[in-house]
Specification:
- With 471 residues, this protein is α/β, with parallel strands linked by helices.
- 45% of the residues lie in helices and 15% in strands.
- The strands form 5 sheets. A 4-stranded parallel beta sheet has the order 4-3-9-10, with helices on both faces. The protein has a 4-stranded antiparallel beta sheet with strand order 5-6-7-8. A 3-stranded mixed beta sheet has the order 12-11-13, with helices on one face.
- Strand 14 and strand 15 (456-461) form a beta hairpin.
- The longest helix is centred in the last third of the chain and has 25 residues, at 304-328.
- The two termini are 41 Å apart.
Length: 471
């Protein structure tokens, strides 16, 4: 099997070959931290987390870089509106993004550089671009001359003459209205850094060219980001880097938007779509399952009802694993060989997660049939296969229950419910059914449903409070 990825630059699905055998350098455009993340923002984080996990599963050592844009016009605007320094807004929202990535099970990046921590690298790159004759200074700003780069527009498939003017700075200082600002001259009350062309702050695009080069070298394997970044951001990154002789990225991957009522999700839709709010209404693992359930290049319509519907599918997977554990009676080891070959084929086909998840459900059905006929070894094999595949998608339920505050809380709840169930069983054995029913009713009032099975009681959270495996 050969991994194939859709490359935005060539508009084809290409066989993947890393620059260095066994190693992958991957740069993903992260957050511009002017506000807390909504579900649309975090889709990119989940999509490329799955790409990274699959590369790791294929045996690659992945260096994963995701930047933080902590200075830009919107951050300054919001800081001014709050009457606080820009870094107060930036740091608060960077923490919110980190929490959102964490709550949805995204692995931490190898490196997560901030724009403001890499001013010297940006200045060096701009000087090289000016020496190459494609950059110029005017009135304290530094611009890129788009007509000096013959391939400008190749990523987005546009011709320069058909492009609108770049709206990142006033056109009067530009040679061409389409030229974009790499550096913005200082304005009163704004933060600034010294450069050979005067004080100022970075433009949006220069930071990624400079930071990608620092952490991944002049040429690296994969650059990812949202579809809305193809132009102008990624187009401009390519222009800057190629004009100083860097190969930059060999593959360009872009995830599609999350929509609501057919429109791209945006902050104007209100706080109800913030990740911090959504995970109060739905289980985080089920939100990740929902986001993973659509191909990363497909638009994804969001609503709580759709996440709930998807969550029922994930609960069927969890239910099988719970029943399988009861049948097997002991822990089982999982490795890559346990994955179903059709799952690997789907993931190699441009990270086809919908098909991969369909394979998981097929294995779950086989496992449930094995439980019904008492075939313990087949149950074990199918459970191992399901867990191995869930690992790749970042959806292994056991990973979400250990090692963090949520896991410790669930462990404490599990222990407390176990005590209550022991008291309930003791009441039933002494035929005190009124007390047994009272314990069950109290648990139900707390959002905990009890299911009596031949192997003993099993608990879960009720639909309005989420769901969790338990003892």
């Amino acid at each position: 099997m050969v991994l194939r990825l859709h490359d935005t630059c060539t508009r084809t699905v290409r066989e993947f070959a890393s620059i260095e055998p066994g190693r992958v350098g991957m740069y993903v455009c992260g957050a511009t931290v002017q506000g807390p993340p909504h579900v649309g923002h975090i889709r990119s984080g989940v999509a490329f987390d799955i790409v990274r996990r699959w590369l790791g599963a294929r045996g690659y050592d992945v260096t994963y870089v995701r930047n933080v844009t902590d200075i830009d016009d919107k951050i300054l605007h919001n800081a001014g509106h709050e009457d606080v320094p820009y870094w107060v807004v930036a740091m608060r929202n960077e923490r919110a993004f980190t929490e959102a990535y964490d709550v949805l099970g995204c692995l931490r990046p190898t490196y997560e550089p901030r724009a403001t921590g890499h001013i010297p690298e940006m200045v060096d790159l701009m000087q090289r671009l000016m020496d190459a004759g494609v950059g110029y200074a005017a009135n304290g700003d530094v611009y890129f001359d788009v007509r000096a780069y013959a391939d400008y527009g190749s990523l987005s498939g546009q011709k320069v003459d058909d492009m609108l003017a770049a709206d990142d700075a006033e056109a009067r200082s530009k040679r061409d209205p389409r030229d974009f600002a790499m550096w913005k001259g200082a304005k009163e009350g704004e933060p600034s850094w010294e450069t050979p062309w005067g004080p100022g702050r970075p433009g949006w695009h220069i930071e990624c060219s400079a930071m990608a080069r620092k952490y991944l070298g002049s040429t690296f394997d994969i650059h990812g980001g949202g579809l809305d970044l193809v132009f102008p951001h990624h187009e401009n990154e390519i222009a800057q880097s190629r004009c100083v002789g860097d190969g930059f990225a060999n593959y360009w991957l872009h995830n599609a938007w999350v929509t609501t009522a057919g429109e791209k999700m945006s902050k104007s839709l209100g706080n109800s779509l913030l990740v911090s709010e959504v995970v109060q209404r739905v289980r985080p693992i089920e939100l990740r399952y929902y986001l993973a359930g659509a191909h990363y290049r497909s638009m994804l319509e969001f609503s709580d009802a759709m996440v709930t519907d998807a969550g029922q599918g994930f609960q069927r997977i969890e239910g099988f694993l719970t029943r399988a554990a009861e049948v097997i009676g002991d822990a089982f080891d999982v490795d890559a060989d346990d994955r179903h070959p059709d799952f690997d084929e789907a993931m190699d086909d441009d990270i086809n997660t919908p098909q991969a998840i369909a394979v998981i459900h097929g294995v779950v059905r086989e496992g449930n049939a094995a439980i019904a006929r008492g075939d313990v070894e087949t149950v074990r094999a199918r459970a191992q296969s399901v867990v191995a595949m869930l690992d790749v998608l970042g959806l292994n339920p056991s990973d979400w229950r250990r090692g963090d505050a949520g896991g410790r809380l669930e462990g404490a709840v599990d222990a407390l419910v176990a005590v209550a169930l022991e008291q309930r069983q003791a009441a039933r054995e002494r035929k005190d059914f009124a007390s047994a029913d009272a314990i069950r009713d109290q648990l139900k009032a707390a959002g905990i449903e009890i299911e009596d099975t031949p192997d003993g009681p099993r608990w879960s959270l009720s639909d309005d409070g989420g769901s969790s495996d338990g003892g």
